[in-house]
Amino acid sequence: MYHHSDNIIARSTPPGRSAIAVIRMSGPGVFDLVARRAGNKKFKAPPKRQLFFSTLFDDKGQILDEVVLACFPEPNSYTGENIIEISCHGSNFIVQQIIEQFVRDGARPAGPGEFTMRAFFNGKMDLARAEGVIDLIDSENRSQHQLAIGQLRGGFSERIAGLRDRLIHFASLIELELDFGEEDVEFADKGELEKSVIEINSFISDLIDSFSMGNVIKKGISTVIAGRPNAGKSTLLNAILEEERAIVSDIEGTTRDAIEEVIHLDGVAFRLIDTAGIREAGDVVEEMGIKITLEKIAHSAILIYLFDLALSSIDEVLADLENVAKPGIKVIVVGNKLDLANESQLKAAQGKIVLPYHFLPVSSVEKKGLQELKNLLIEHFHELDSGQTDTVLHNSRHYNALLRCRESLEKVIEGLKAGVPADLVAMDIRHAMGQLNTILGRGISSDDLLQNIFSRFCIGK
Amino acid sequence: MYHHSDNIIARSTPPGRSAIAVIRMSGPGVFDLVARRAGNKKFKAPPKRQLFFSTLFDDKGQILDEVVLACFPEPNSYTGENIIEISCHGSNFIVQQIIEQFVRDGARPAGPGEFTMRAFFNGKMDLARAEGVIDLIDSENRSQHQLAIGQLRGGFSERIAGLRDRLIHFASLIELELDFGEEDVEFADKGELEKSVIEINSFISDLIDSFSMGNVIKKGISTVIAGRPNAGKSTLLNAILEEERAIVSDIEGTTRDAIEEVIHLDGVAFRLIDTAGIREAGDVVEEMGIKITLEKIAHSAILIYLFDLALSSIDEVLADLENVAKPGIKVIVVGNKLDLANESQLKAAQGKIVLPYHFLPVSSVEKKGLQELKNLLIEHFHELDSGQTDTVLHNSRHYNALLRCRESLEKVIEGLKAGVPADLVAMDIRHAMGQLNTILGRGISSDDLLQNIFSRFCIGK
User: Fold this and answer.
1) What backbone phi and psi angles, to 5 degrees, belong to B225?
2) Inter-chain residue contact B145 with A15, CB threshold 8 Å
3) How many Å lie between the alpha carbon of B111 and the closest alpha carbon of chain A?
4) Å between A153 CA and nearest CA of chain B
5) How confident is the model over B272-288, as pLDDT tens digits?
6) For the whole model, what pTM was predicted?
7) How many CB atoms are located within 10 Å of the residue B133 CB?
8) In a domain, B112, yes or no
9) Which residues of chain A does B115 touch, with a Cβ-Cβ cutoff of 8 Å?
10) Do B258 and B358 share a domain, yes or no?
C-alpha cells in the first residue's frame, strides 16, 4: 500500500449559505488533529467508525462551531486512510475559520480530486473507476448517470481486466514457447491462439464502436431544427421547451448563427440547434448563414425539418429534403400550423412525404403533436442505442487506448497468419496489454497524466 | 413532547457540483424509508447512532447512488426525532432523484427551517436559541459569529429565563397576598419588592441599550468618508480596500450618490460610505448631493474627514468640521497626500487639529498611515463595545419584546410607589413575564410569528 504522510483538508460541499457544510480531512493524523480542537471528551483518537457531536475550539479557546464528526478509520474508508468529515453550520465564514485552524495545526489544503487520487494510490479503486466518480458528479440526466454508476461500480474495469487477463494467458503461452524455442516445442495451437485474439479484438472493436453512443449520452444528441423562413421554427422550439423549462439550459452557440438549447427527455439529453432559414440566398451574408445550416445538419444525428402546412408547397419541401438529408441522419418532417391548414392540405402532405422521412403534423400554437414529436426523438435514441454492447465507452482517454490496443492486436493476428517469429508477436501482445493497463491506471509512471485526470475533479473529492 | 407523524426531507447543502451533497430526513419513519431503498443488508431499522456505506436503489431497481448514511435515533438528534443524513455524490441530478424517490415513498419536502422548528416543538431548543442557529449560518465575520454562537449555546436564553424566574417569584408573593387580601396580611416587603423590580428593570435596560451595538455588529459600523472635492477620497477608499479585496463585498447604495463597501477588520464589519464632496453648492443638483452627505454623516458612527495636506487651508477644514461633526460621532481627520506636503504644512495641521478630533497624516499613494487608520477604526469599535453587558442584543424581535417588558416593569414600579391595588400590579408583572416568555418561545400561540421566524432559515435546516 502506498502511504501519504501528510493530512489533507478541503470543503466537500459547494460554497454558499446552507443548513450544513461538510469539511473532509484524510491522512494518518486527522483524528489527532481533531482531538486537539474538540471539546467532546468522548472523542478520542483513534475512534471507531462512529458519529460524535462536538464543539470545536480555535487556538485562542474561542468556539469555532458546534459540529458533527463522522470518523472513518483506515483502511475501510474512501481514501484507504483515516478520514474525518466535519459537518458544521453552512456559513462560508465558519468553514473558512475551521479550515484555517486545521491548516495552522499542520493540515494541507487538498488539490482537486486529491482524495480520489489517494484512493487510487492506496488501491481502493482503479483509474477507470476513479474517472467514473467524476462522471457521476457531472451527470445531469438518467443516461449519463447510469453510464457513470456502471463505471464507478467497476463494470467497465472488470471487462477491461478480463480482456487483459486473457492476453496475459496468451502471452505466457507464447513466451513459454520462446523459452523452449531451441527444442522446437509448440505449446500453443496457433489456430486456437489466432481465434482467441480475433475474439478479443472483436470485443474491443465493439467497445470502440460504442464510443459514438457514449459521446451522444455525455454531450446530448445533436438535433437540428431547419426549414424555410417563417415555417415557425422559433415557435416550435419554444413550444417544446416550455413544458421542460425547469430542466432546460442554455449552451453558448459555437457559431454566430446557431443557437443551442439542451432538453432532457426521458432521461436523455437532446441538443436542439436552431438554424437560419433555408432559401435562395439574397446576399453573401445570407449565403454564409445557409452554409452553416447545411454543415450543422451534416453533423447532426436528427434533423427536424419544418414547413408551413397551410402555405408551403410540398414539392419545394421534397426538393429541400433532397438537398439536406444525408444517409445516417434521421429526418422528422414537421408540418407546422396544423390549426391553419385544411383537410386536403394535410392529406397531400401525408401522401407525398413518405419513408425514409417521418411526417408529423403539429400545431405549436394549439400544442398539438408536440408529445408525438418528443416520442419520435426518444424512439430514435433507442434506435441508436440498440445493438450496442452492455458496456458503453464514453471516455476519450479510454477510446484512444483501445484504438492503440486494437492496432497491436491486428498486428498480432497478421503476424500469426504470416508466421512471424514468436518474440515479435509477444511484443505486440505486451503492447496491447499495456494499453489496457493504462485504462486501469496500472504501471502509469506519468504524473502529468494523473494530474490531468484529477484536475477535472472538484476540490474536496 | 410534541410529535410529528410525518417524515420530512430536504437537501441540506448548497446546490451545485461538488464532492458530496447531504440530504436530511427527519421523522418517526425515516429509518424504514431508507431501509427499503438501501442495498446494504447490515442497515436495519432502527439502527444505533452509526455510519453505513450503502447503495440506494430506485423503485425500478436502478442504482440511485452509492452513499454514506449517518443515523441519529431519537431523542438524541437535532430535531429530537429519528434523523438520517444521506451523503451522496454532489450532482444536482442525483440529489433530485434521491429526494424524488423518497417523496414517492411518502416523505414530504421540508419547508424553510422546518427541521429547527421541529427541534423547537420537541423541546430541543427555545426560540431564541433557534434564532441563534440562523444567525450563525448568516455570520460573515468574527463578531457576528461570536454573537450567534453565544445565542445558540443559550447564554442569552439563560439570562432571559433567569429574569423571568425572578419575576415569577415576585408575582407569586404578590398573588399570595391577594389570596389572603381580606385578612390584611402582608407577605411581601413592598420596599424590597420595589428594589428587586428596579434591579430587573435595570438589567433589561442594559440589554436594550446593547441593541445599537448588536445592530452595529450585525450590519457593520457605518463609516462615512467625506471631504472637499479632490481631497483623494476615492484613492483612499481603494487604498484601504485593496489589501482586503478578497473579503470586500459591494452593497447597492440606498441613495443615488452614496456608494457603500463592507470591509472586515479584525473580525468586525465596517460599512464604508463614500460621499459627494463638500463645497459651496454650484447648483440645485449639487446642493442635493451635499444634503445627502450631511444626512449620511448624521446617521454614521464614524466620520473620516479627508483633506489635502499640501493644498487645503486648515481653517477651512476646521470650519467644515464645525458644520458636520455632531456629538456621538467619532471624527478621524485624515490629512491626505502626505507625500506632497512639506514639514511645515504637516506641523500646522498637527497643531490646529486637536481633540475631540483625531488627526492622522496619510499617503494613499505611498500606502503610509493606512494601517494606523485601520487601527483607529478598530479602536473605536472597542470604545463602542466597552461598558456593554456581556450579552449583546441584536435581534429586533427580542428588542421589541424587551421594550414592552420595560414598559410594564415601569408601571409596576410606579404602582408600588403609588400603592395601587396588588391585583393591578400583578397584572403588569404577568405582562412583563409574558414578553420574556415570547423571546423564549413559550406559550406562543401565533403560527404566523413562528412561520415568520423560520422563513428566514434555509431549506434543510
Assistant:
1) -100, 115
2) no
3) 12
4) 9
5) 887 766 655 556 656 66
6) 0.79
7) 24
8) yes
9) 19
10) yes
